[in-house]
Amino acid sequence: MTTTAYTVTGMTCGHCAQSVTEELERLPAVSNVEVDLEGGRVTVVSADALADGDVRAAVVEAGFELVGRV
Predict the structure, then answer these.
(1) Does the predicted TM-score (pTM) go above 0.70?
(2) CB–CB of 62/27 below 8 Å?
(3) Pairwise CA distance, residues 38 & 66, whole Å
(4) In the chain, is it the N or the C terminus that has fewer CB atoms within a 10 Å radius of its CB?
(5) How far apart are CA 13 and CA 4, in angstroms?
(6) What distance in Å separates the CA atoms of residue 46 and residue 16, rounded to the nearest whole number?
């Protein structure tokens, strides 16, 4: 298992968190996503390491911006 934390900007509410979670959970091997709205942090647990481009694309699809890894 791999756990990686990212900084995501633009999330302000539970709906935002749900949108990001749903998009990231569509990526292969992702088993858990936790969103910290106050800190703008998204933690992803996956069976294998994820490509940053795939994570970025999922976050953008949800309507937000991936700043980078924490």
Answers:
(1) yes
(2) no
(3) 15
(4) N
(5) 22
(6) 21
Supply 63's token pair: 């309507």
Give the whole-angstrom CA distance, residue 29 versus residue 67: 22
Look at the alpha carbons of 48, 49, 52, 56 in this order and tell me if their dihedral is positive or negative: positive
pLDDT-based confidence at residue 61 (cuts at 50, 70, 90): very high
Closest by CA position to 68, among listed 2, 1, 3, 4: 4
Contacts of residue 38, defined as CB under 8 A and 6 or more positions apart, other chains included, come to none
Task: Let me know if 57 is exposed, middle or buried by CB neighbors in 10 A (0-12, 13-18, 19+).
Answer: middle
The number of residues making up the chain comes to 70
Which residues face 36 on adjacent strands?
41
